[in-house]
Amino acid sequence: MEQDEKCRPTTSVPLDNRQADAAMPALVLLEIDPAVVVNGERHDDVYVAEDVRTYGAMRETCPMCIGKHLQLVLRQKDVRLAHLFCANCTRCYDARFADGSSALNY
């Protein structure tokens, strides 16, 4: 048996039985200054950083760009804190739970 086969689940959960949003509380988005979370430079009212990867569209949408899903940015070489990023307006957000604790950084 190969290593990959040992890690695979033996049974799958049907998609009909999953409750994706049931266990996830709504998140509060707080806009944060990109200079605080990313090493980069400001050019003409836009913050530019090199080699920053995003990891897919999230369920949360940008409060400024209605309907545009935010992208997850994890900590990496030029990123100090994980955050949500809007590729449309280049704003950064911290996602917090209702009690004020960060959903991304702990």
Describe this protein's structure.
With 106 residues, the protein is mainly beta. It has helices at residues 3-7, 34-37; strands at residues 28-32, 41-43, 46-48, 57-61, 69-73, 83-85, 92-96. A five-stranded antiparallel β-sheet has the order 1-7-6-5-4. Strands 2-3 form a two-stranded antiparallel sheet. Strand 6 and strand 7 form a beta hairpin. The longest helix is centred in the first third of the chain and has 5 residues, at 3-7. It is globular and about 40 Å long. The model is unreliable at 1-13 (pLDDT under 50).
Number of strands: 7
Helix content: under 10%
Proportion in β-strands: 25-35%
End-to-end C-alpha gap: 37 Å
Radius of gyration, rounded? 17 Å
Reported for the largest beta sheet, the result is: 5 strands, antiparallel
Order of helices and strands: HEHEEEEEE
Biggest sheet: strands side by side, in what order?
1-7-6-5-4
Continuous helix count: 2
Shape: globular
Structural class: mainly beta
Mean pLDDT: 78
**Which regions contain 5 or more consecutive residues with pLDDT less than 50?**
1-13
